[in-house]
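Team,

Forwarding the record for the chain on the shared tracking sheet. I've put the sequence and predicted structure together so nobody has to dig through attachments.
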Amino acid sequence: MADGEPVARALDLAECEREPIHVPGAIQPHGVLLNLRESDLTITQVSVNALAVLGVDAQNLLQQPLMQFIADESMDKIREALGLKNVAVANPVRVELHNAQGSAFDGILHRHSGALIFELEPRRTRNERYLRNAASNIGGVLELLQSTPDIQTLCETTAEEVRRIAGFDRVMVYRFDPEWNGEVIAEAKVEDTGSYLHHRFPASDIPAQARQLYTLNWIRFIPTVDYRPAGLLGTADLAEPLDMSFSVLRSVSPIHLEYLKNMGVAASMSISLVHDGRL
């Protein structure tokens, strides 16, 4: 190890532990984030990539009523969802724009810390078919998991089934010890890749604030580790940075992206396993 590398490593770890990853001020650019004023559904914040995804410039969306851009039938669905005690049960809401020319989007609504956040991702026919096929298999998967005789077999079966449904090259089940160090206890992978089974990782690899987000938000997608974050317009009007703890598009830490690249990962999905409120 070259001179200075241990010091640099310590600085990197300290920076990682202090990073406010729940307020990145940016999203992954495969969708668009809108922050809405709930009283009249006016757009108070919007991600700068709106033109690329929605075909409407972000500046033209800011401080405008949502209904100006969303088709009437879609607005009815959004208002119906907002009337529910738990708005998340209506997700995803099928959304069409006034100028979308047949394009459709999946809309994800959630409330958090006084904000009403609405995220839009393009709905693709191939993905719809894939998800329908995956959903049709869930019943059989649950029956299979319920029949497993012990925790280790359950973890191994879960890894195999998640890989079969999601199509990833590798799925790992990762267990924390009391000091938050981790170990890969089960793995399913394609044959020509190396194995991480029984590899151990220090607690610093997943710092406390990251573990907190994994506990709150149980699924996290990163379609590509090479994305360029899309920032938010409208932040100057807010007293505090937008808390994106439950956002599906939240941009992840650049330190985490570099970590994934160093592992040879091109895309990832994380599913939190929580027992009695603890990872």
